[in-house]
Amino acid sequence: MTGNDYYMDCGGNQTIVNRSGTGRDDLLLEIRRNGVAGAGGGGFPTHVKLNCRVDTVIANGAECEPLLWKDKTLMAQHPDIIIRGLMIAMEITGSGTGIIGLKKKATQAVDALSGHIQKPIRLHLLDDTYPSGDEFVLTYETTGRVPPPGGLPLDVGVVMLNVETLFWIGSSRPVTHKWVTVAGAVPAPKTLVVPIGYPVRAALAACGWEPDQGTRVLEGGVMMGRLLPDLDGPITKITNGLIVLPRDHHLIQRYERPRRTVSRIARSACDQCNFCTQLCPRYLLGHPVEPHLAMRHIAMAPENSLPPTGSLYCCGCMLCSLWSCPEDLDPGAITFDYRRILSENKTSTRLKAREPHLLYRYRRPTLSGLKRRLGLACYADAAFPVEHLTHETVSIPLKQHAGIPAEPVVSPGDRVKMGAIIGDIPDGGMGASVHASIDGVVQAVSSRITIQGDNR
Ligand code: SF4
Ligand code: SF4
Fold first, then answer.
1. pLDDT at 144 exceeding the cut of 80
2. 329 lines ligand 2 (CB under 6 A)
3. Cα–Cα distance measured from residue 173 to residue 431, given in angstroms and rounded to the nearest whole number
4. Domains of the chain
5. Residue 181: helix, strand or coil by DSSP?
6. pLDDT (tens digit per residue) in 193-204
7. How many A from CA of 328 to the centre of ligand 1?
8. 222, 238, 305, 373: which is deepest, by most CB within 10 A?
9. Looking at ligand 1, which atom is closest to the CA of residue 330?
């Protein structure tokens, strides 16, 4: 069986529910053994997240970062497996309602899912706005409930999982592969399906990218991603997108701006117009996030005084910096920094939610407007072709998730099969196990496990 056969066989021939007699603890154990962690970018171990009781499970297929299409494509191609995963999550949590939140514009995914859903699961179609995939925003959009500041969707009876996470739950297989969109300044944007540990550089090359073209790469997305310092790193369980942009692109220059410079400009240029707060999605939900107060604090407060506590409830969506501020300042970076400082000072975090703002519905930017503002309108943004790839060598990090790193259970020279466990979490530890993503021989074990494939 080749890597692609293995991948494509992930439950594709099973019926939606074939688990009679499988208990809740067994299901959680299977998810733990399979190393499932939040594929939307958080990497939170899924067996821990699902160990709760709620009335609603939400499948997050909103995928609101510009240019990303991997979730929409996955829903279009494997609706049955995602729905099976959702039903398992509902069974574990005792939930009576399942909701799949996705955008109206993802028409292929909507059609594919519509052919498979049955009560008590329903689709919730979203407008093409940002940040519709934020878990608080999506909870409100789909249920009308607002998680409290400093809390979780769990506080209002909801668990939310990314659709790729649900795909792996539904497949009942170890997490060995990743769906990744490669887009932006590449000749042939694609959604790739690659073994975990696949080199980033090879993924870019598969889309026609060539080195020395004066480009930089954002991992995750242009709004909430990070500038990749090293293209020789691997694709992990939480790599969703690789967005290539010219080195002189406005966004790249912003990402490269030293934090010292961000603070200096903030001190001198903010005119306290308050737009950043008025358009902040968490503020509009009734949370006390007020980035203009963070900007005022950095300009005027005595050194070493604690920042405004509302910064604690910033989700880091960067809308204030990349959309709202007419002065092109970076209140999101300042607010998010303050969130870290406040968290380190253990400032109390949980508050009571207020009512959402009356103008909530009218203050959400459309993706098309956001792309124009960001200088991304010239790049393809559509259901990209899907390509399954493998590689002769993979380098699999032992930590791709929230919590502690997995401990290696293989040594150099060991022969492994795809799906075999190569790193495990000790009993009582929080994390996710990791598995071989190709057949081959273990070459090296450090913070990553390198496997030389049999088909080199
Ligand atoms: S939008 Fe910009 S200029 Fe206005 S208060 Fe916020 S950071 Fe200052
Ligand atoms: S990054 Fe800015 S817009 Fe987003 S939640 Fe934080 S303060 Fe609000």
1. yes
2. no
3. 17
4. 3-171 (3.40.50.11540), 256-374 (1.10.1060), 393-456 (2.40.50)
5. strand
6. 999 999 999 999
7. 8
8. 222
9. 7
